[in-house]
């Protein structure tokens, strides 16, 4: 089957309560006999689903993949990016040697020179300006062992608060919303809930394109006996919306108004489980008061929806026996992101639909290893979901690392990515190390970001597998090994941990990310308080063993997981400690939340301002550690369409590409499927503008403008959609527009959710004009 | 009965707080967090004047809400502040100015908070439950502004003072 034309493959319909049928997908290079290759176990790396995948190797090269039919995650299925994306590993333009900038040009050099230069500048700046001069911006695409090594090196070696991941752009709101409601990060539900549920709600989650295999599972239930019901909130008529019972094509930036109306309806119709709410939550009275006036009639004109559709959505949620919800960027990257995502948690708490088969929710991740970035504290959190505001948590970490607690900065929340770039802009951060991400394409307001990266005051290190747009601004570029070329673990969006074997050697002199971080720590002479090396491991398994201890007793408990057990069992869902060594399918079965003041990951924030709730307030609010029903008023977005910029901009993904196409554009099938960007417009708007399908249009905001061909689609009138994948590495000068710009982030606004600090890629006003040719 | 005076006092404190929030937001145009949050908070504080206006007539006072644009000179001053922000956006010195501005906002918010306390006490003594409800709700929100100034200052100070 052509999996470009049909990304989801053939249906294997199944009824409720039955195991999802197996369908084994595979793709190997032409002329390769599947019997004549060696297979290495791994999981998919181009989205967050964590599909079990075997890598085929012949003569030291990756030649194909197949899905693992035994896996509880994918039951053998693979998506188009899994089937074709592996070819990027073999791309001839992989970085194979370090590069350093000489007389303005990047030139090949050896490792010693490159790392020596990094360490020299780092030492010089630490001496002159202290640890606040350093920042590290990492990824959602490395392995757990890489992140943990980085987190230790940065927090206890350099001693700076400025460490974050690009997970800030994709999954920060998921983590924040889970902390706000349940006291700690960690997805309550499991993919297997789809086998048991009666209704699914996808909130801003175009699952058909972001997690194709998860969508296959939903589709098989939708096309099977006793079909489940589906609610979709999305301004576009996505493939998911096509299948929906209720599709709410909502106006950008108004999610919270809708969610407050849905909660209003649940309370007004008494579609709530009073006993569950009374026993297991705090904040009901406040929540009920907050949504008092939020009727469907109130929300309808704000959201651009009909009151009867909102009421129908509430009824679907309120009357189903089992409810499963997923949330993604339509909420996370929009106005009042955390508040809207918390309302999804609230719906499950109000209905008592958590911790049972078919009753759960997934605050989804976008990237394959984003969960590990969050667990290990390579984002704006401390390792093991520890609370930076709880001194005993910091002391515990200090004991594990054998450093003084004061060495680990915890006088404020760790610095988030957008603030890191702000400090680079004003010049107080002068050393920035970017690993496995591409801010020159993926951050908002690119002209600003490029000017920051190009600033001569900034010493920029880029660690990547290709010469990305960002790498072209660097002072030093170090070549990394990737998936299939290094050993390690990573964890998907339903807490499933996989071991990814080393199948082939990395190209040239490229090195595993962990080794590069270790090399830096060693050159810097970072030690513990007894003078021993700070990083005490030299291979992935050593890092994993150290991590197990760090996670022991915490919500993300890995302590009973070993490489050997992963090889034996294929996958394990955390928490997996002494009491549940084979893992845990669902969290909070007994409403046993992680919200007690002494153990919680965070005391929460004011959802409007982001100001942290302090410990004493939290103890008074939630002494027993129940779930918290957080609530906030809807307020309009700061930038709304006006006469000059009458359209609402939203950016997003296509099923064929990942991130900034560094890998997917190097897989011929994927690149051919979506070779260039486009602008989606509604039929009605296209007619008004005199635009036909394929016409070149210019889209402009207060930040910049881009040009791309129009696609006339079923999208809500007034809304404009742009894919965010397309940068400049394969056009012009390789790092910035040379002639017409086309990157979606030329247009986006520098603004973020106050609580999660996730940028608002889905709010912004633009104009659209036809380009006369 | 001097409740009318107390209402005017709160309204005036909230108006000043809202105006200073906007001015600080313009001055720190290149600090996006401060720029956007001050607008959110100014809008919230203005809402308090509207909420109080519903009670004011009963006590014989009329409240001036202050327009969204403030004085006639406001657009000029706004442009000047924003331009200043752009020119200084690549330099670290505005950090010190930010700490000073947050301190000023903090004092204004705590002044407004005390005015709410006084009015709330008055509303209880005057047995005016509707007024008391408004005071309680608005005061809680003003405290959010107060907490935000503390938080933002705590967040900014380490980098400003060691950078």
Short description:
The complex is a heterodimer of chains A (773) and B (163). With 773 residues, chain A is α/β, with parallel strands linked by helices.
What tags apply to this protein structure?
heterodimer; A: 773 residues; alpha/beta; Phosphorylase Kinase, domain 1; Rossmann fold; Dimethylsulfoxide Reductase, domain 2; 4 domains; 7-stranded mixed sheet; 26 helices; 27 strands; globular; B: 163 residues; mainly alpha; Ferritin; 5 helices
In words, what does this structure look like?
Chain A is α/β, with parallel strands linked by helices and 773 residues long. Chain A has four domains: 65 residues, 2-Layer Sandwich (Phosphorylase Kinase, domain 1), CATH 3.30.200; 255 residues, Rossmann fold, CATH 3.40.50; 193 residues, Dimethylsulfoxide Reductase, domain 2 (3-Layer(aba) Sandwich), CATH 3.40.228.10; 124 residues, Barwin-like endoglucanases, CATH 2.40.40.20. Helix content of chain A is 30%, strand content 16%. In chain A, the strands form six sheets. Chain A has a seven-stranded mixed β-sheet with strand order 6-5-17-16-15-7-8, sandwiched between helices. A six-stranded mixed β-sheet of chain A has the order 23-25-24-27-22-26. In chain A, a hairpin with a 4-residue loop joins strand 18 and strand 19. In chain A, helix 2 packs across helix 21 and helix 9 packs across helix 13. Chain A is globular and about 70 Å long. With 163 residues, chain B is mostly helical. Chain B has one domain: Ferritin (Up-down Bundle). Chain B has five helices and no strands. Chain B starts with a helix and ends with a helix.
């Amino acid at each position: 089957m052509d999996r470009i034309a049909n990304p989801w493959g053939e249906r294997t319909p199944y009824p409720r309560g039955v195991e999802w049928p197996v369908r084994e997908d595979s793709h190997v290079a032409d002329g390769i006999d599947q019997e004549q290759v060696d297979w290495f176990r791994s999981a998919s790396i181009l989205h967050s689903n964590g599909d079990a995948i075997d890598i085929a190797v012949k003569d030291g090269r990756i030649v194909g993949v197949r899905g693992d039919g035994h896996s509880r995650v994918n039951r053998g299925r693979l998506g188009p990016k899994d089937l074709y994306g592996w070819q990027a590993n073999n791309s001839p333009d992989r970085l194979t040697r370090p590069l350093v900038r000489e007389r303005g040009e990047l030139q090949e050099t050896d490792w010693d020179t490159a790392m020596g230069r990094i360490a020299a500048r780092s030492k010089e700046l630490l001496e002159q300006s202290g640890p606040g001069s350093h920042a590290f911006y990492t990824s959602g695409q490395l392995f757990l062992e890489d992140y943990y090594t980085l987190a230790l090196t940065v927090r206890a070696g350099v001693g700076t608060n400025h460490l974050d991941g690009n997970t800030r752009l994709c999954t920060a709101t998921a983590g924040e919303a889970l902390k706000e409601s349940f006291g700690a990060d960690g997805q309550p539900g499991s993919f297997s809930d789809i086998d048991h549920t009666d209704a699914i709600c996808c909130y801003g989650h175009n699952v058909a394109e972001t997690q194709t295999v998860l969508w296959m599972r939903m589709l098989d239930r939708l096309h099977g006996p006793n079909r489940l019901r589906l609610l979709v909130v999305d301004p576009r008529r996505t493939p998911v919306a096509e299948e929906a019972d209720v599709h709410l094509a909502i106006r950008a930036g108004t999610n919270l108004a809708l969610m407050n109306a849905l909660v209003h309806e649940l309370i007004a119709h008494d579609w709530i489980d009073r006993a569950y709410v009374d026993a297991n939550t705090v904040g009901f009275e406040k929540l009920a008061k907050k949504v008092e006036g939020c009727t469907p009639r109130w929300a309808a004109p704000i959201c651009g929806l009909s009151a009867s559709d909102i009421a129908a959505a509430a009824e679907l949620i309120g009357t189903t026996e089992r409810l499963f919800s997923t949330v993604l960027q339509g909420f996370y990257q929009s106005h009042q992101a955390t508040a809207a995502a918390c309302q999804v948690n609230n719906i499950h708490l109000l209905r008592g639909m958590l911790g049972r088969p078919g009753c759960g929710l997934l605050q989804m991740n976008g990237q394959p290893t984003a969960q590990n970035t969050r667990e290990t504290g390579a984002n704006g959190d401390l390792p093991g979901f520890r609370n930076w505001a709880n001194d005993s948590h910091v002391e515990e970490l200090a004991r594990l690392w054998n450093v003084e607690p004061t060495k680990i900065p915890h006088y404020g929340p760790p610095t988030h990515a957008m603030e890191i770039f702000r400090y680079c802009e004003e010049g107080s951060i002068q050393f920035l190390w970017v690993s496995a991400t591409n801010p020159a394409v993926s951050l908002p307001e690119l002209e600003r970001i490029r000017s920051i990266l190009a600033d001569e005051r900034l010493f920029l290190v880029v660690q990547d597998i290709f010469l990305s747009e960002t790498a072209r601004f660097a002072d030093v570029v170090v070549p990394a090994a990737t998936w299939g070329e290094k050993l390690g673990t990573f964890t998907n969006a339903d807490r499933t941990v996989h071991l990814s074997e080393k199948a082939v050697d990395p190209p040239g002199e490229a090195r595993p990310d962990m080794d590069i971080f270790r090399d830096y720590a060693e050159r810097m002479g970072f030690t513990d308080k007894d003078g021993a090396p700070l990083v005490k491991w030299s291979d992935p398994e050593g890092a994993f063993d150290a991590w197990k201890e760090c996670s022991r007793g915490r919500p993300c408990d890995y302590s009973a997981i070993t490489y050997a057990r992963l090889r034996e069992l294929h996958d394990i869902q955390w928490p997996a400690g002494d009491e549940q060594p084979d893992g845990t399918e669902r969290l909070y079965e007994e409403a046993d939340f992680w919200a007690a003041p002494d153990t919680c990951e965070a005391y929460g924030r004011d959802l409007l301002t982001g100001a942290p709730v302090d410990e004493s307030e939290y103890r008074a609010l939630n002494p027993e550690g129940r779930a918290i029903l957080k609530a906030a008023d809807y307020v309009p977005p700061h930038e709304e369409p006006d006469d000059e910029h009458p359209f609402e901009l939203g950016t997003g993904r296509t099923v064929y590409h990942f991130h900034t196409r560094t890998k997917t554009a190097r897989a011929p099938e994927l690149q051919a499927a979506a070779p260039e960007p486009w602008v989606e417009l509604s039929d009605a708007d296209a007619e008004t503008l005199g635009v036909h399908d394929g016409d070149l249009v210019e889209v402009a905001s207060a930040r910049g403008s881009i040009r791309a061909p129009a696609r006339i689609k079923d999208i809500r009138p007034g809304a404009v959609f742009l894919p965010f994948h397309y940068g400049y590495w394969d056009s012009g000068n390789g790092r910035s527009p040379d002639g017409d710009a086309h990157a979606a982030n030329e247009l986006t606004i520098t603004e973020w959710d106050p609580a999660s600090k996730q940028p608002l890629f889905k709010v912004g006003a633009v104009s659209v004009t036809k380009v006369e040719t | 009965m001097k409740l009318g005076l107390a209402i005017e006092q709160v309204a005036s404190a909230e108006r000043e707080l809202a105006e200073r929030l906007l001015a600080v937001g313009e001055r720190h145009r290149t600090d996006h967090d401060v720029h956007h949050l001050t607008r959110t908070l100014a809008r919230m504080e203005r809402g308090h004047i509207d909420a109080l206006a519903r009670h004011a007539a009963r006590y014989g006072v009329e409240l001036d809400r202050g327009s969204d644009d403030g004085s006639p000179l406001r657009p000029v001053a706004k442009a000047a502040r924003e331009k200043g922000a752009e020119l200084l956006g690549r330099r670290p010195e505005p950090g010190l100015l930010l700490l000073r501005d947050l301190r000023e906002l903090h004092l204004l918010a705590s002044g407004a908070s005390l005015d709410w306390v006084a009015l709330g006490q008055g509303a209880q003594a005057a047995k005016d439950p509707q007024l008391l409800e408004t005071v309680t709700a608005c005061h809680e929100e003003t405290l959010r502004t107060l907490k935000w100034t503390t938080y933002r200052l705590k967040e900014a100070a380490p980098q400003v003072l060691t950078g």
